[in-house]
Structures
1.
Amino acid sequence: TRQMVVVTGASSGLGLACTKALVKKGKYYVICAVRDPAKMDQVAKEAGIKSTDYTAMKLELASLQSVRDFVRNLKAFKSARPLNHLICNAAVYLPADPTPRFTDDGFEMSLGVNHLGHFLLVNLLLDDMKKAKNPRVCIVGSITGNTNTIGGGLVYPRADLGDLSGLEKPGYTMVNGAKFDGAKAYKDSKVLNMMTVRELHKRLHKETGITFSSMYPGCIAETNLFREKREWFRKLFPVFMKYVTGGYVSEEEAGERLAQVISDPQCSKSGVYWSWNGNAQQVGALKQTKKNGKVLWEVAGAGGSGGEVFENSFSDDVMDDANAAKMWDLSMKLVGLE
Ligand code: NDP
């Protein structure tokens, strides 16, 4: 029998490409956890994913009730069989919003969908997954949460969780308690995603036997994630990533990378943040030089091809153990598990 994998946000971009890559391997059955199952069936058809290889199941991450309903439906669907793997991939990126949007439970949207919805989902599935053979959970991270890289550090605003005081106050607009900034809210949520992986590993790997990891797929500049960005940005950004930083990756390859984290024996280690050679991560520094009065940008260590998976290091923000412990406690409260 095939192994069962839940992929959130499977109806677009990386999640769809990963679903395709998984079913191609022949040993996986994918539960596509999506906010719009009818859309999923449509895109699956277009992508050539056979109806015998997946099921679309409703999951609205902007509602904790929907997360709970999804888990109940999933358990009914698969009956006693444990879930083998979980991929938390869905995300919103809302850099153009002047004011915050809120989830059903009153959380700022990026925080609620990207972090808290997945936080609850993972926690509700642990007991079931620990019964499976070599179960794995991957929460997709991002370089944008890494303040020591071009993608994360140079492009403002930077991620900054502060002392997480925003999670203690009603309203929950920004994690560090500052004024709303949609681009920063996304980056903060990705830092929270990666922190969650480290905490899951520290607290629950030994007890459950589950492999917890995060990964950065490379910049997939074509996905809908950038749908809110202006037209010129959407046109230029892929070109920039491809030729300047060398961090560009096609949707198809990114999907294979995410599938690899679940399927490759090389990726069985828990508590790891996986990246691939040839990524923007390899880019050491962006140097500004002047030539004939013109400003030029030079990228040290750019390019490089390959695609070999390696253990990357988490950023200092993610490695902040005191904040991570606080994040865990506050998130548990916010999703109603404590
Ligand atoms: P897309 O916007 O193409 O995909 C995001 C997915 O999340 C969509 O399927 C979307 O559903 C789903 N989603 C959004 N809101 C909700 C919600 N409230 N409930 C349930 N599902 C929801 O972006 P990408 O494929 O690029 O992003 C996927 C992951 O990759 C994200 O975690 C992102 O942070 C990460 N990433 C992306 C990079 C890139 O370069 N693109 C780089 C680094 C990381 P729907 O199909 O209905 O719109």
2.
Amino acid sequence: TVTQKPEVVFILGGPGAGKGTLCRYIVERYGYAHLSAGDLLREERAKPSSEYGELIETHIRNGTIVPVEITCSLIDRAMQTSGNPHRRFLIDGFPRNQDNLDGWNKVMADKVILKGVIFCECSQEVCTRRCLNRGASGSGRSDDNEQSLVLRHQTYLKNTLPIIEMYERQGLVYKVDSMRTPEEVFQDVAEYFPKIGW
Ligand code: UP5
Ligand code: MG
């Protein structure tokens, strides 16, 4: 018998666009497991045994992107240990630049089926306001501050948008207007899933 490869949906969008929130809604309704690349990096950073803690923290604060070898191996390991019986994964916040994409294509692309990319569209103003509110209410995230948010958004425009555009040319991108309530955003996505056969 042929073992079906795991299925992957990427969730992309600006910093604070609502990627993680949307993923939590999808997980409740569909048999997907949620892997946030940012969360995996923050967990790795928190391990006293990690040799990458400082490097990860520097990138997060500056809104720059951690070398793909680190991120990709965290994603790979999380997929293997997730215990998700359907082997369906929402990969949130990755790939963010050409280095991420190259690394993914080199070690992961052949091992999975990429079903599509959900693009959470949100203005810089709304994204920034959401992250600042989250910071003010005690997120503890070292990048929820004005300076980091400017840098995060610059990186998003310069490095991540071209990756989304590349997937768009391949017909893989499903856009959602994520400036509405989480419930409304999820309703749009819920319409896509059965249509696309995800
Ligand atoms: N919120 C969410 N949806 C809302 C809605 N519809 N209406 C009103 N409020 C809404 O939401 C952000 C905030 O907005 C929350 O308070 C939420 O309640 C509210 P969230 O769902 O967390 O949005 P998300 O897009 O996930 O925002 P996040 O801050 O996580 O996005 P980033 O892309 O900036 O963060 P990430 O964790 O992915 O990456 C952080 C850093 O890690 C990067 O800058 C980079 O340095 C590093 N990184 C890498 O180097 N490589 C990677 O592959 C990934 C990350
Ligand atoms: Mg997130």
